[in-house]
Amino acid sequence: MRLAEIFERVVGANAPVRFRAYDGSTAGDPDSDVTIVVRTPVALNYLAQSPGAMGLTRAYVGGHLDLEGDMYTALKRMWDLAIGDGIAISPLEMVKIAKDIGWVKFVNRVPPPPQEVTPKRLLGRGLRHSKDRDAEAIHHHYDVSNAFYELVLGPSMTYTCAVFATPETSLEQAQFDKYDLVAKKLDLRSGMRLLDVGCGWGGMVRHAAREYGVKALGVTLSKEQAEWASKRIAQEGLGDLAEVRHMDYRDVPDGIYDRISSIGLTEHIGHKNVDSYFAGLYAKLKPGGRLLNHCITRPRNDLPPMFPGGVINRYVFPDGELEGPGVLQTSMNDAGFEIRHQENLREHYALTLRHWCDNLEANWDAAVAQVGEGTARVWRLYMAGCILGFERNVVQLHQILGVKLDGTDAHMPLRPDFT
Predict the structure, then answer these.
(1) Is 199 tagged catalytic?
(2) Which of 161, 199, 357, 386 is catalytic?
(3) How do the domains of the chain map onto residue ranges?
(4) Runs of H (alpha helix) within 16-170
(5) What's the whole-model pTM score?
(6) What is the CATH code for 131-403?
(7) Can you tell me the mean pLDDT for 306-312?
(8) CATH second-level architecture of 3-107?
(9) Greatest alpha-carbon span in the chain
(10) Please, what is the end-to-end C-alpha distance for the chain in angstroms?
(11) What φ, ψ does residue 214 adopt, rounded to 5°?
């Protein structure tokens, strides 16, 4: 049986995409602006070994499965097809397909692409969320290439959700506005000391120093991020106020900061460490101090935080774990923080990701030259999929503001002055 017939058997004859295979067969909508291309039999091996998202990802990252057209459009149409028509393959149907394509595809083991982080590789660095293992996980994702991140993220070098005044707002303005929103929620003032944990390339640190005269320290587990940030701080003449160190947030001394920002770090600390994380940040704040926690969240609090065998965990964020907003808020409250404000910026992250996807496509050849085609493919697939995730409420983005009371005084205005 030709592969196009199997494609139709799985997704139906009216799929809103075109299908083409190495055996010359085609299926789907011949006028579609996106085409799924099976280039080699290895794609079938991957799908046989891991039916679903993991097999498709391995085949695509390895170049055995390809896509002609826009990745987001293709994923959206296939998502809609799966939800609307309920794509599902029964065990009996799977046996029939296996016979048609040849049992050899099911027994020939093909190693995953080198971009995949296997459990064995991480186990060699210790237990989940130990300092050494966290350093390896961060190294995998963030020490890819600063030049690559410049191509994707743009001049702001900010790898977290921006805040858009309108859908037409530029990415750079939206990232500036995000940092300024954090600064206003924290009520930053000249002479204060700010700690930014998981500081990335130092965007918040530089913003606080440049715009508010704050003495700001950022810490990151990525050596390449710290080196890039230190150079940029020097270039901008902010060395008297801003500093970025290559260190674990757990090693920062306690009790000396007026304000703390945590922008995109909580996703990496692990469910079992959430309570100790917020307790540790509480200890680093002076009485009357504020914490702004900004992170990706699950839409419900009763969902499991881990995706240990999922695509994102294997290819993008090893050991990543997402909490529901109620879990985070409760943990902050139990650590001693008084919760003063919370908001969901889910739609803003979808807009942010669209800009990053556009940047990657516009700079595709340069990106491939920096990191190789396999890694560039990981980013194309993962970012387009994340747009859908935020649009469809699979994931959210929350900012939660907490205060370490000064006795009973929160030092807050009667009404928020940052909305």
Answers:
(1) no
(2) 386
(3) 3-107, 131-403
(4) 42-49, 53-61, 71-85, 91-101, 104-107, 119-123, 131-142, 146-153
(5) 0.91
(6) 3.40.50.150
(7) 74
(8) 2-Layer Sandwich (3.30)
(9) 75
(10) 61
(11) -90, 140
